[in-house]
Amino acid sequence: MTLAQHTDRRIIPIYVVLPPHTLLMDVAGPVEVLRYANIEQEAILFDCHFVAARREQTTSIGLTLANLEPLPERLPEGAFVIVSGSIGKVPDPALVEAERREIAAWLRRSVVPGITLVTICSGALIAAAAGLLDGHACTTHADCIDDLRRLAPGAQVLENRLFVEDGERYSSAGISTGTDLMLHLVAKLTSAATALSIARVMVVYMRRSGSDPQLSPWLSGRNHMHPAIHRIQDAIMADPARDWTLLQLADLGHLSERHMTRLFREHTDLTVTAYVNLMRVTLAREILAGTRLDMEAVAERSGFASPRHLRRIWSQHNDQPPSHYRR
C-alpha cells in the first residue's frame, strides 16, 4: 500500500540512521513496533526510511544491508531520527571513526527544534559527539556510560535505566530496551491500547519511564534492570492480596531483608510497603469496575484488613473510591 493511499492518516517520517557495524536488534526491534503500529491503528502512519553514510552497511551479525538511502539534506518538520547502536570492537577502526564523524556532523546540522532524536544503545555516543545531548537527561548501554559522560559533559547521564525521555530527546540502554522505548513512543503518539496490543503480539513486557505518568499502575516502578527486584515485583503483581512479609519477598530475590529493602527503594523509588499497597489499590479498582461486590468483599479480595483500611490507602493515591462505596 502506497503513502497516497493513506491520505487520511497523519504521516510521521522516521529516519533510522545505520552506523557501521550496526547492531541489528537495535533496528529490528524498534522498527517492528512501528510496523505493528501501522497495522493496529489508522490514525498515524509511521513512514520509515533507512539512511546511512554509504549505500551498503555492515551489521553486527555479518548481514549486509543494501539499497540504503543517503543522509538527507533536510529533514521534514516533525520527523523522528533514530540512531542505532553498533559494535565496539571493529576490524576497520579508522574507516568506522570517519563514518561516525560524518553521521555526527549530519546530525548536528539536521536535528533542529521540531525534530525528535531517539538513540538506541551506543547510538547515544554519536549524538553526544554531535553535541545534541548536552543539557538533557539521557542514558545508554552500561558499557558506554563512561564514554557518554566524556562526550557529553553537559548532559545528565543516568545509569541503570531502560530508557530516558527529556523533551525532544529519547535514549535507551539498547538491544531489547530499544523495543521498550519504541512502545513508549507509540503509546504517546497513538494510544496505550495500541502499544499494549503490540507488546502482546511481540511477546514482550511493556514498561514505562519512571518519570512519566504511567499507562497503568501495574507498570509503576518497572523502569530498571535489577533482576531480583523484578522477580519480587512479579510475585507481588501476580498475587497482590497475599499477606506478604519482607522475609518472603527477600527470599524470592535471594537477598537479606535489609538489602532487599534498600535495593527496592533505590531501583523503584518506592518502599516495598508502598508498592504492595499500590498493587492492592489497583486490584481493588479493577474489582470495583468489573463487579457489584460491596466494599467489604472488595477489601478482602484485594488484601486489605478492612474497608476503612482500603479507603485510607486509596486516598493516599490522590483518589477516592466511587461515592457509593465511601460509606
TrEMBL record:
Pfam families, alphabetized: DJ-1_PfpI, HTH_18
Domain HTH araC/xylS-type: 230-327
Transmembrane stretches, start-end: 110-133
Keywords recorded for this protein, A-Z: Membrane, Transcription, Transcription regulation, Transmembrane, Transmembrane helix
InterPro entries cross-referenced by the UniProt entry: Class_I_gatase-like, DJ-1/PfpI, Homeodomain-like_sf, HTH_AraC, INH-QAR
Keyword ATP-binding part of the UniProt annotation: no
Leader sequence segment: none
Any one GO molecular-function label of the UniProt entry: sequence-specific DNA binding
Residues forming coiled coils: none
PANTHER family named in the record: ARAC-FAMILY TRANSCRIPTIONAL REGULATOR (PTHR43130), HTH-TYPE TRANSCRIPTIONAL REGULATOR RV1931C (PTHR43130:SF3)
Protein's name according to its UniProt entry: Helix-turn-helix domain-containing protein
Organism of origin: Rhizobium terricola
